[in-house]
Amino acid sequence: MIRITLQYIPINTDVAFLRIKQDFIHLGYYRVAFFIHAIIAIISLAAGFTQFSKSIRTNYPKLHRYLGWVYIISVLFFIAPSGFIIGLFANGGLSSQIAFCLLAVLWFYFTLRALTSARKKQFVQHRNWMIRSFALTLSAITLRAWKVSLVLLFHPKPMDVYLIVAWLGWVLNLIIAEILIFKLNSKQDL
Known about the structure:
By secondary structure, the protein is mainly α. It has helices spanning 2-6, 28-50, 54-59, 61-87, 94-119, 123-137, 139-154, 158-189. It has one domain (2-189). Helix 5 (94-119) runs antiparallel to helix 6 (123-137), helix 5 (94-119) runs parallel beside helix 8 and helix 6 (123-137) packs antiparallel against helix 8. The longest helix is centred in the C-terminal third of the chain and has 32 residues, at 158-189. The termini are far apart.
């Protein structure tokens, strides 16, 4: 993901993914949303991975809270809103646009619920909402993994791949998150 992001720095609008977005890159709000999304997403991935470390939560609770705030601020104020804007212009038409905009809305909602649960000291609910939120954060990775896999296995047309990964990149993550939450909550009930 870092290598993908570094292609755009310094600000470059004629590289990688943006080569197929030339119809929209001239729009100031799209360009700003894209670069915010691409660059700050790395921060949310890094901060998010640390949040599930029992060692960090137990031995360094201040670090857990600090990195949690980094994650929450990056998602709520930057990545989810910019993802929604980018989603409005998604390749593949209406289905892909709905998929990416819904991803952004759910990502914002789950992250906000994680924050409100933590502030109320409802830590089981906080964990559950963070699992959901981070499952959507991981869509940055799983979308690309699915894209590569589908192309290698089936050689579909590029826009057909986009239609599939627009949904598969995050819906499967969310299903896995719900299974994980169910298992974790079942263990606590014992």
